[in-house]
């Protein structure tokens, strides 16, 4: 094979089993020069990045979804198989396959490497976590392993700064020839056993005392659930406690910007648009960015540390009470961050009915878009006082809202499954080694989440806020009219038309107005309320995000606030979630069922909450 000219971009694909450290290696190579999208015609995530080798070669790298075999059992594995084989429509075949394998678990990972060899394409084996393998007393003969596989073998450590040095040197060398495929009837398991016997020796006995000791606690039938509950509880407490100083700083900054713009501009429609529309609306949502990032930080830490698969295994008996298996846990936990990737993660569930039920209940997991609404209402109506000297009452209320969503999801799943777990196989999954989360990977994950959130603020949220400002400002009240100007506007008229439907829940017409843009994105409701009350209250020139928490108790009762909290636990106010359900199920009927039962739950629960709150 001829050497690829330096001017040509070399296309490589990282492929391997889940939990092999492939994504950490991808982050090490590409840093922030990466983008995430979906493959054409599929809901499978596509991660692509670019970097330059020490010798100046331009590399385009794909981080393919993890797969255990080329005999695909899920859409993720099907995409990985087709791209590696060069048969995926609209996607050019990679010039080089970089097979990533966990050096501490070659017995499992080498079989997949042998399957990749059967494709007859140029490949390199990257033995990742080689440092952990050496600590476990494993001595791997890399040259001999390369000879057995017919492909170069390099050692990598995806969490170290120079951990990909050997891989980069290999990419600077002439591309290797394609390995010779094994005969079709070859027993791959036998080949793996022979390779391990010839290429791997142990310098000292394996010591897994620390991991075994941790697993005795983490997977204990009693202490395991206690540890998981404490972790989740502390996570929700941290969302309030850690974020407050940062939120105060952002809130003060947005208030200062609104003040300065208000002083610089004369009274008029443009000043009102900028101050009461864009700055008040967008600023009231940006304020909650620290809470969203803290929530994502916890989820990333649990995932990077190797705890999430153990939590899924631990919760398998609990999920079975709802007719599901532990496979549903990770998609549902992902839905706490956002229901869209959570629903997409259900592709790993093999049983079609279990997958459908998990999709149906994923919107009940309290996603990060609800946090701005929850924080606003809890901060305004729940006193900030200590409980038992150490717990925060606001954090307890937030934990209760999350718990309500979880318990409701289990109940809905149980009803939908009508008992039993169907044909879902027993839960068999690899428990990865415990590891300290890599700060670089955490930072990249949080940066990507902040970028997505701010892009959403700068497009969807600002656009809807400006639209709501226009509806709230026009038509202007006639000369001599009394009362707030918004009463005469289109938004006021729409809110009053909706009032008979939502008045039994304790909602006023301003809440009805805020529910409309909230259909596009839940967090927009906060900006919508800021816009409505900024226009409705005469003389409000400063940032309404800072004032909203003080204004609401003067306009709403506690019963109304509790009713609205109950509404947001269930209401499907997210068009993106409904859209991804349509894409994943290819069924408008499922979308209609999801929206219907969620709206019903939201209305009934909000009604009961309001009536009970009035009684007490």
UniProtKB/TrEMBL annotation:
Entry's transmembrane regions: 222-243, 273-301, 321-344, 356-381, 393-413, 457-476, 488-507, 519-536, 556-581, 588-610
Superkingdom per UniProt: Bacteria
SUPFAM superfamilies the record matches: P-loop containing nucleoside triphosphate hydrolases
Domain FeoB-type G: 9-177
GO CC terms in record: plasma membrane
Gene3D superfamilies membership: P-loop containing nucleotide triphosphate hydrolases
This protein's name: Ferrous iron transport protein B
Organism field: Novacetimonas hansenii ATCC 23769
């Amino acid at each position: 094979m001829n050497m690829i000219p330096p001017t040509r971009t070399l296309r490589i694909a990282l492929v391997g089993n889940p939990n092999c450290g492939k994504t950490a290696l991808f982050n090490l190579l590409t840093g922030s020069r990466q983008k995430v999208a979906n493959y054409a015609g599929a809901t499978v995530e596509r991660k692509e990045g670019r970097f330059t080798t020490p010798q100046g070669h331009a590399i385009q790298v794909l981080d393919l979804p993890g797969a255990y075999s080329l005999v695909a059992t899920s859409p993720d594995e099907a995409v990985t198989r087709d791209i590696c084989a060069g048969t995926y429509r609209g996607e050019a075949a990679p010039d080089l396959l970089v097979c990533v394998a966990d050096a501490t678990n070659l017995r499992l990972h080498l079989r997949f490497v042998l399957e990749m060899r059967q494709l007859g394409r140029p490949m390199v084996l990257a033995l990742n976590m080689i440092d952990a393998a050496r600590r476990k007393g494993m001595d791997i003969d890399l040259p001999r392993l390369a000879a057995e596989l017919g492909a170069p073998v390099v050692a990598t450590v995806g969490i170290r700064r120079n951990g990909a040095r050997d891989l980069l040197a290999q990419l600077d060398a002439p591309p290797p020839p394609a390995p010779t495929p094994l005969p079709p009837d070859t027993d791959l398991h036998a080949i793996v056993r022979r390779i391990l016997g010839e290429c791997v020796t142990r310098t000292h006995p394996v010591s897994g005392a620390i991991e075994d000791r941790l697993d005795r606690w983490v997977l204990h039938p009693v202490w395991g659930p206690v540890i998981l509950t404490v972790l989740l509880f502390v996570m929700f407490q941290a969302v309030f406690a850690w974020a407050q100083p940062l939120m105060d700083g952002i809130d003060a900054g947005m208030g200062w910007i609104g003040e300065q713009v208000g002083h610089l501009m004369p009274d008029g429609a443009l000043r009102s648009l900028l101050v009461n529309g864009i700055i008040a609306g967008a600023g009231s949502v940006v304020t909650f960015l620290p809470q969203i990032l803290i929530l994502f930080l916890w989820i990333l830490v649990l995932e990077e540390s190797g705890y999430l698969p153990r939590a899924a295994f631990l919760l398998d008996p609990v999920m079975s009470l709802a007719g599901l298996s532990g496979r549903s846990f990770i998609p549902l936990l992902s839905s706490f961050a956002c229901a869209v990737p959570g629903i997409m993660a259900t592709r790993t569930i093999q049983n079609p009915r279990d997958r459908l039920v998990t999709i149906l209940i994923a919107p009940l997991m309290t996603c990060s878009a609800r946090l701005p609404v929850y924080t606003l209402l809890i901060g305004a109506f729940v006193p900030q006082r200590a409980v038992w000297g150490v717990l925060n009452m606001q954090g307890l209320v937030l934990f209760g809202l999350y718990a309500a969503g979880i318990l409701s999801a289990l109940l809905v799943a149980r009803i939908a499954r009508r008992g039993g777990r169907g044909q879902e196989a027993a839960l068999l999954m690899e428990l990865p080694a415990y590891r300290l989360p890599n700060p670089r990977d955490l930072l990249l994950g949080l940066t990507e989440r902040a970028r997505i959130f701010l892009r959403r603020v700068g497009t969807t949220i600002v656009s809807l806020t400006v639209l709501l400002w226009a509806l709230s400002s026009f038509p202007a009240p006639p000369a001599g009219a009394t009362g707030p100007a918004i009463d005469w506007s289109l938004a006021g008229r729409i809110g009053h038309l909706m009032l008979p439907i939502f008045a039994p829940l304790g909602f006023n017409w301003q809440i009805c107005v805020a529910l409309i843009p909230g259909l596009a994105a839940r967090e927009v409701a906060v900006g919508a309320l800021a816009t409505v009350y900024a226009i409705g209250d005469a003389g409000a020139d400063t940032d309404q995000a800072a004032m909203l928490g003080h204004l609401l108790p003067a306009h709403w009762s506690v019963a109304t606030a509790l009713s609205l909290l109950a509404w947001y636990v269930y209401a499907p106010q997210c068009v993106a979630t409904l859209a991804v359900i349509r894409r994943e199920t290819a069924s408008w009927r499922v979308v209609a069922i999801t929206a219907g039962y969620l709206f019903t739950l939201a209305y009934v629960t909000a009604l009961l909450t309001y009536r009970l709150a009035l009684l007490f």
